[in-house]
Amino acid sequence: MEPAEFMAASLITCRCPRCGYDLSGTVASWSGQCPVDGVCSECGLGFGWRDVLSPVFNREARLFEHCATRRLANFRHTLVRSLRPWSFWRWVRMEHDIDLRRAWFVGIMGAGITHAAVSAILMLGILAVLFIIWLAERQWWWYEAQWATIQVAWPLGWADNWGLDAVLSPVGVAIILWPLAVPLGYCFLGETFRRARVRGVHLWRITAYTLPALPLLLGVQTLIITIAWGIDVLGVWLTWWDELTASGWLAVYLGIGLWLLLCWGHATQRYLRLPNPWLVAFVMVFMGGLAASTAYISLIAWGGMMFW
Question: 0.85 exceeded by the pTM?
Answer without folding.
Answer: no
